[in-house]
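EI: anyone free to look at a 204-residue chain?
SC: sure, send it
EI:
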Amino acid sequence: MTEYPQLSALLAACHWIGEKGWCPATGGNMSLRLDEQQCLVTESGKDKGSLSEQDFLLVEMAANHVPSGRTPSAETGLHTLIYRLYPQVGAILHTHSVNATVLSRVEKSQALVLQGFEMQKTLSGQSSHLDSVSIPIFDNDQDIPALAARVAAFAEVTPLQYGFLVRGHGLYCWGTQVAQARRHLEGLEFLFQCELQRRLLEAK
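SC: here you go
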């Protein structure tokens, strides 16, 4: 698959994510847009820290069809939804970090609002700690088409920007290219850690 630009960058990002412990066991899934019709999605049951090019499967986005017949991530439908909604999105990273998972449960509202942190500027379009960043939270569901439908309904009213949380599950984030998706992931993870620590200290 070396003919696909950006795949080596995505592999490097996956290995980095594995080293961070943000995708324990075989959790998480990653993808890369190829064009308007196709993307690459990680195969189900693979350790994200030791992926190879062969662990990415070609998926036809309109119907989530995999020509190879192999089994992609169970959450492929969320990846293809984001690609269909936002043509500018080039890569998606879905992780299961402790901070994202815990915060998504501690926060009882429908969004995690971050404000006052300088590192908000790691997110495209953010220029000041005085602004607020709202990360939507969707209740978890093993029925991925149903979850995707709820995400799509939300996006019709309020466009998604950097990503969203699934309650008790983890974070989906993206970017125009792998480098931007990786920056958004690292920035959000730092912000999640700060926010969780802030709440723990204020609760004492």
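EI: The longest strand covers residues 132-138.
SC: 👍
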